[in-house]
Design goal:
Blueprint (H helix, E strand, L loop, with lengths): L1 H12 L3 H5 L7 H10 L10 H21 L1 H12 L31 H9 L3 H20 L10 H17 L6 H16 L2 H5 L2 H28 L2 H19 L6 E4 L2 E4 L2
Antiparallel strand pairs: 1-2
Length: about 270
């Protein structure tokens, strides 16, 4: 649902995206790196991949228990575990709930204009700058309009989950994962950010800039892939895949081939 509505929004916003971007897609890697580094944000997402691997495993297991026993039963068992008691529900084994700090959340500041920063960093001509800004706005609006992403809004964890879902889908050439897997990914990333002290110290404007940047980094390959698929343009599809791969490497510092979607769920390789 999210992917479909996003693509519709992007197509309306940028009907000639492929023609403008396809010929230059390979040359924008440096531009993406410049934009990402210009906010001094790259360090904030360094070394989170390993922690995220562990947390996605925990979140996936918890979601499986919720599917089997129900949320109320799992939460009750977690409270019992926190109190040092055995779960009253036979066969239900859980860990005590972790402290939720939500260090990735922020209060939006209208003075932060990441769209312009993306446009200036990635576009060479006025037309390209306008196109980048339009794709960013369409992506952000579509992302924040979905009921499924209500808890993801104004949270770096939500933008990073969206970034991974979108770019892995484009890079691997697969459908986006199930809603269950997507929500487990978000919960895992949210917990991961809570374990990075630097995130607790970031100013609102820096979190917002990172949030917007990740959304923008998702919109570009999605838009290119969408239009390439519509036009059956193999060259455009290859450019979209290359772009998604470079962005995954830039942000997560990992070989994009290590992140797979299998049976509707994420598998993070070492």
């Amino acid at each position: 649902m999210l992917r479909l509505l996003l693509c519709l929004g992007l197509l309306l916003a940028s009907p000639s995206f492929a023609q403008t971007w396809n010929s230059n897609a390979g040359g924008y890697t440096t531009g993406y790196g410049t934009v990402y580094g210009s906010f001094g944000l790259a360090q904030a997402t360094q070394n989170i991949y390993t922690t995220m691997q562990l947390n996605i495993s925990r979140a996936t297991m918890r979601q499986a228990m919720i599917n089997k026993w129900g949320l109320a039963a799992v939460e009750k068992a977690e409270r019992e575990a926190a109190a040092g008691k055995k779960p009253s529900q036979a066969g239900l084994e859980v860990q005590a709930p972790r402290v939720v700090r939500n260090w990735g959340t922020f209060k939006p500041d209208k003075k932060v204009n990441t769209g312009k920063a993306l446009a200036d960093g990635l576009g060479d001509t006025p037309e390209e700058k306008q196109l980048v800004a339009a794709v960013f706005q369409a992506t952000k609006q579509a992302f924040e309009a979905q009921p499924e992403t209500k808890a993801w809004r104004n949270n770096v964890a939500g933008a990073l989950a969206f970034f991974i879902i979108g770019n892995v889908s484009v890079y691997q050439g697969v459908e986006e994962p199930s809603d269950q897997a997507s929500q487990a990914l978000f919960q895992a990333i949210n917990q991961t950010l809570d374990e990075v002290p630097e995130f607790g110290k970031l100013a609102n404007k820096d979190k917002q800039a990172l949030y917007d940047t990740l959304i923008g980094f998702t919109g570009m390959p999605l838009a290119l892939a969408t239009e390439a698929n519509e036009r059956k343009d193999a060259e455009g599809a290859a450019a979209a895949r290359a772009m998604a791969g470079e962005l995954l490497k830039l942000v997560l510092k990992v070989d994009p081939a290590k992140i797979q979607v299998e049976n509707g769920a994420f598998v993070f390789g070492k």
